[in-house]
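Protocol step 4 of 5: obtain the predicted structure for the target chain.
Materials: sequence only (see below). No template structures provided, no constraints applied. The aim of this step is simply to have a reference model before the mutagenesis design in step 5. Sequence pasted as it appears in the construct record:
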Amino acid sequence: MKLGRSMQAKQVFSEKLLKENKRLNEIVDQQKGLLVVDRDIPDGQAIEDKIIVDENATTSAANAISNKEREKMVEEKEKVILEQAEKIQELLTKIEDAFKRITELSTEVAKTNEGKQKVEHELSETAKKCSDFQKKCAGFFNQVVSLNSKQQESEEEISSLKRACENFRAQLAEKDAMMITMRDSLKTYEDDFRRENEEKAAIQKRMETAQQESERLRRENQSHMATIRHFESEIERMSKLLNDEKNRHKTTTSFQTGFGQPLFGSSASRSFFQ
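Step 4 output (structure tokens):
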């Protein structure tokens, strides 16, 4: 943000320096024109020659202009010429300083633009990373949804197996009671009892296997949920960074400077060249 404000201020100041430089060049041209006009004014010798000619023409006109007055006129014109030459030199010095300042500011603006391009590139890379994280998170979320569906199916199967097991246990308890009283007289039921025990063992084994699978799915689901929370936290952080960079860019482009006065029209601008 500070880099953008500095770049904007330097660009505005450079434009003002260019305008002021153009104005100074126009003033110099005007002063040069005045200097040429002053130099075209006849000097003392030319006036004296003209007076001599006029004396030959008329004695009254020659007596009207004295030597002292001619010398005074020459001195005043030389003084004006010197003052104008000093003003021109002063303006040329200011123009040279302004050119140097413009060159320095142009270099700084180029460096600032390079830094701005680098920041924009980093911002683009950050946005790309954020998009990649969002895609990965969506993939993990789909996996979690699938795992939750499988876990629900496994839990339903476990519930069904538990109910079947309870039914078998109730039946076995009833049959065990019957077997106690009928063991000697009902030898023919031993094979059935053995098969039922085998079925009970098979059901018990299936129930244990289903419980183990459910536990595995539960652990895997917890692992994926932890991964999703991590990616959500990372996405939130990257989104915050992206928003900060966008706000910084907006603040940089909307920065306004206070160079509203002419460069050499105020005491602050005059102190700049002193």
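Step 4 remarks: The radius of gyration is 51 Å. The CA atoms of residues 38 and 81 lie 7 Å apart.
Proceed to step 5.
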